Structure prediction request, 828 residues.
Amino acid sequence: MTAYIVRRILFAVPILIGVNLLTFVLFFVVNTPDDMARMQLGAKRVTTDAIEKWKAERGYDKPMLYNVSAQDLDQVTETVFFEKSMRLFAFDFGNADDGRSIGHEIRTRMGPSLAIAIPTFIIGLAVEITFALLLVFFRTTYLDFWGVVLCVAMMSISTMFYIIGGQYLVGKALHLVPISGYEGGVDALKFVILPIAIGIVGGIGASTRWYRTIFLEEVNRDYVRTARAKGLAETAVMYRHVLKNAMIPILTGVVVVIPRLFMGSLLTESFFGVPGLGSYTIDAIQAQDFAVVRAMVFLGSVLYIVGLILTDISYTLVDPRVRLER
Amino acid sequence: MKGFATLLGALAAAAVGAPALLRWGFGVLPVALWTDVLVWLLVAIAVGYAWYVRRQAHLHAPWQRVLRSTPGMSALVALVVFVVIGLADSLHFRLPLEGKSGDGRRVYAVEVLSLLDVLVTPLRARSERTYSAPLATRAYQRETVELPDGKVAREFPRLRYGGAHLANEADRDRDVLVTALQGAALGFATWWALVSAFTGWLARRRGLPLGAMWRALRRGETEVPWLAVYLTALGLMLAAFIVAPLAGKYHVLGTDKVGEDVLYQSLKSIRTGLVIGTVTTLVMLPFAVLLGIAAGYFKGWVDDIVQYVYTTLNSIPSVLLIAAGVLMMQVYIDKHPEFFQTAAERGDLRLLLLCLILGVTSWTGLARVLRGEALKLSELEYIQAAHAFGVRGARVITRHILPNVMHIVLIALVMDFSVLVLAEAVLSYIGVGVDPSTTSFGTMINAARLEMAREPMVWWALAAAFAFMFALVLAANLFADAVRDAFDPRIAIGARAVGAVT
Prediction:
């Protein structure tokens, strides 16, 4: 298994280089450093000197992909692409446009993001699976039919409605929690509880329906009939047999998102004013701060690949038949 | 094939004839926006597909199952209404101005209007100065007004159009009620007339006595759930007939910051949502189908490359990829202002490019499913037999593999629609959605969001955007479910849900 994981990690390198090339093309070829300098410096009549100075300060004065004037290996390394993109491999994110270290920002903002994302994920998963099992328990009854209709209705509602509606109802009308903001320590609880609740409610519709179809497929298998035939109660059948056997398809969808929890939720954090990575990303997009966007793209890709590897490992944990030796 | 050729001919004639008719018959200058062309192309494809399905028994059967699904049919009725509104909003032209230019040619207004704009002219033209609540007669904010006796006072001024016909404002509630009841009665009567005529036609076709037909309908014994269709139609007709006369006298859903009618904005947003939901899929399909099937069928290095490309694209958080694409597009558009004659054209190009970007970033999910399916199919006996007969790869794909994965493509198409409509709102909120001048659910929500803090709250624009979006997405989801159940209940294709990442 160790050999397998090492190989998977090596496979990740070309993918990450591809990601970097893609973002590089998007950010530097269409929008050249000259354009960026003009936008950052603001005024229309900026001199070429000012642009050159801006570029030199930020290291954009080198050739894009290939340095003709340099020697040997420096032909590749003394370029904007290598300086700006390949450094990400060492998790050296450089500085944002306002001069602050992106790496430091990511480390400090990770906490609030995780404080919301992890409880939302765990409680949400438990609630969704319980609801899905309930629907399957009452299959072919009106409860199941209307439950599914309710799920479809809930997934047809925009996430933004849940957030705005929740903020209005709980924060403004009932004054139970502050509408937005964040504080560290124990005080964080009153700030994160509403985003977590809204995150759970917003996810119920689509996920419950999805897990229901997975469980429905298992419920008609022979081993379920055997379990019932030997006299097990329906709840025991559900939780001990169906749930366990449905684990593989569930894990496929679930494990891959776990590492991405670090990145936080864009909308929730932005609406609730939580200083996490999600709101950091949104601010960067709106301010067109490419250094930050590039760093977040890279981080997202790494976490996605970690998620894929974790998914494979999790298969071996729930299903002993799976062996990672391909 | 002859019928198909006739159909193509008719479509071509329509494509040439409609603008000519508009120009010479109504004296307007037709404007073909890019998205209009694509929307009508999609309509042509849909008509062609429907015509094709009619003669293919294996496709006919699953569509009949769709027609027998109660939620599916109700949703279809609602969707048809949305599509008709969207299509009416996809015929653009410029109205002629009075007088002629020096060389005797007609002069046209700069403003690009659609058929829908003309149909709902009262809604479009009667704008107030600023916010007003639904059905209000007075503005939402106090203004300094001069009283008849020369004094100056701060009060809520009467609206220019909302309830302007009322001599006494106290009559408003009664007036609204009477108008609504009259509308409801008229709507019910129209509905009843249509339903009776349709039931009569059904009975004639089945050779049943009318009474037996009604009984069967009431008990839900018909194959197609007509009762559900009738009830959905009743709901929609009542809504339309109640709102229409009221909209002539009041602002039924209020007005926004610049005094524009919110109902008008909501109607205009439908087209944007439909375009994003459908044109994106049109962009995505060639990538997904070609690359997915090629990877699964040819295997080897083709498979490696395709897998590499989609894993790379997949690994980038979708919102960031879309944002990067849109920011670059914005830079490009800003650099080339000379491309666009009118603001409508600029907004339209941005909408089209947004669809392109969404398409390029969202084909990976479907491609992966199609790759797996092609892998599975290429091992089956009939493909092996085709190989043994010396049939070439490209022909095997078009004759044997493509028809057998079309159901997956169709399901992906209908399931992606609602995801994309919801995603538009999120992207517009982040600032990487449609052009701010294009009316969409996203821009409506974005504009209204900042007014939440006002006291009393300006809630109507938000509520209208969310309600219309909910109706559209719910109908699309229910219909997609019916299609999926009919074609392949086991399949689950998650579009790269932009919503899931956010």
User: Anything to note?
Assistant: Strands of chain B lie at 29-31, 92-94, 96-100, 106-108, 113-114, 143-146, 152-155. Chain B has a mean pLDDT of 84. Chain B touches chain A through 49 residues (CB under 8 Å).
